[in-house]
Design goal:
The chain is α/β, with parallel strands linked by helices and about 200 residues long. It has a single domain (about 40-50, about 60-190), classed as TIM Barrel. It contains seven helices and seven strands; from the N terminus they run αβαβαβααββαβαβ. The protein has helices spanning about 1-5, 20-35, 50-55, 75-80, 85-100, 130-140, 170-185; strands spanning about 15, 40-45, 65, 105, 110-120, 145-150, 190. Strands 1, 2, 3, 4, 5, 6 and 7 form a seven-stranded mixed sheet that branches. The chain starts with a helix and ends in a 7-residue tail after the last strand. The mean pLDDT is about 95.
Length: about 200
């Protein structure tokens, strides 16, 4: 499949949430590389990855594309049932950066190697955006490429009374504050798109 995608003109091979199949990915990539695969490999993840898996990928993955969802363990426990998510995300992003560095693009603007971090802005700043931005700037690099996402949309159990505080889309002001937090932290490679549905 990777070779077929390359033949069709795809720009990269994107593995989405692949932590549980890292050994199989490595085996498949080895076979494809022997047969002529030359595209950049993208590891697209929530950043809830084990260091063992990431270290197995050292020298194999070209581009890491992690989310950084929540800064606080109690918040993470409430919304994704993983109190250790923030710690795992910080550890994972540090390792990803150690392996590949800041994002580098070719003359057409296509990513070739490095880390691209995504952060979804949440209602009421429950994600801890400012702390995440400071971490990226101070512990990773001020040159970190950052995608500040605005498309949060409540669905499923969020519409009930248990999660009333996030049962709405974000406002334009909330999104603007997230961008300001990134700039204040010293980040400058920021991909921002204001949604039509912001209030």
């Amino acid at each position: 499949m990777m070779l077929e995608l390359q033949a069709e003109g795809c720009h990269n091979i994107n593995f989405v949430t692949p932590e549980h199949v890292v050994p199989q990915v490595i085996e498949a990539v080895a076979i494809a590389a022997e047969r002529g695969l030359r595209l950049p490999l993208v590891y697209n993840t929530s950043a809830y990855d084990s260091l063992d898996s990431l270290q197995m990928l050292n020298g194999i993955i070209d581009i890491y594309m992690p989310d950084f969802k929540f800064w606080d363990g109690a918040t993470s426990l409430r919304y994704v049932k993983a109190k250790d998510y923030p710690e795992a995300a910080r550890r994972s992003i540090c390792e990803m950066h150690r392996q590949t560095g800041v994002l580098k693009c070719d003359e057409r603007g296509l990513a070739k190697r490095g880390v691209l971090v995504r952060h979804l802005v949440m209602p009421g700043d429950i994600a801890g955006t400012e702390s995440i931005m400071r971490f990226l700037a101070n512990e990773i690099s001020r040159d970190t490429y950052l995608n500040v996402m605005s498309q949060y949309h409540p669905t499923g159990r969020v519409s009930g009374s248990e999660f009333r505080e996030i049962n709405r889309q974000i406002s334009t002001a909330e999104y603007e504050r997230a961008l300001e937090a990134a700039h204040r932290a010293g980040l400058w490679r920021i991909e921002a798109e204001r949604p039509r549905w912001c209030q």
